[in-house]
Amino acid sequence: RFWKHLQMLKSEFGFSAGFLVQSANNFPSDCGLASSASSFAALTLAGVRAIREMQGKMILTPNEISILSRKGSGSSCRSLFEGFSLWRDEGAERIDLGIGKLWHQVILVDDSLKTVSSSEAHLRVASSDLFNGRVERAERRLKNLIALMREKKWRQSFEICWQEFWDMHALFETSNPAFGYMRSGSLDVLNFVREQVWGKLGDGPLVTMDAGANVHLLYREDQADLARMMGRQLGEKWQVISNLS
Q: The pTM is what?
C-alpha cells in the first residue's frame, strides 16, 4: 500500500523519476492507534513537495494534499493540520473549536496486531442489527460535540465522546460474525476514569477509543497536573504515550 500510494502520487503529477524513501514509526502499528495516519500523511506531504519543487510548480494547499493522502489511508487525511480537523467526504479541513491545545495520553493496554483489520471491521459492522441509524447517530453527536466544545461545556463533551465509542464497539460485538477489540485492561482503564476520576472529582479527561483495545484520554491545558497524576498511576500497569511535557 505504501509504495502503491507513492506511485499514485507520481502518476497524479506525471512524474517518472525515482525516490529513496525512509520511513519509520516510534509507536506500535496495527493495534488501533491509526499508525497509517502518520506514515501516509508524511509520505504524501514529502512526495507532493518533492515532485512539485522538481517540476517548478507551486505546492498544493493542505486541503488539496489531504484529498490525495486519503487515497492511501483514510485516517491520514486528518493529519495534515495542526489542532483539530474535520473529515468530510474526499478530504479533511482544519476546524477551530476555540478550546486551545489539549494534552493527549494513549493508555497502551495491548500492542499486539489486531486479528480483524479496520477495513474488515467496516465491512462486518453492516451486518449488525444496531447498524440501522448508525450514521445518523454519529452525525448528530458530531454536531452536538462541536457546539458543546465551542461553548466550553466539558462534561457534556465527555458524555458524548463516551456514548460514541461505546456505540461503535457495540457494532463490533453484534456483527455477524461477531468480534471485539476491548480487553480486560481496556475496561479497567475506562472504569478507573469514570469512577475514580469523574465520579470523585466531577471533572476529568475526555475518553475515546478507536478500533482497538487502547484508550485515548484528552485533557484541557489547565488539567496538566491531573494528566501527570493519572499518567503515573496508569503507567504502573500499562505503557502511557503522551504529548505532555
A: 0.89
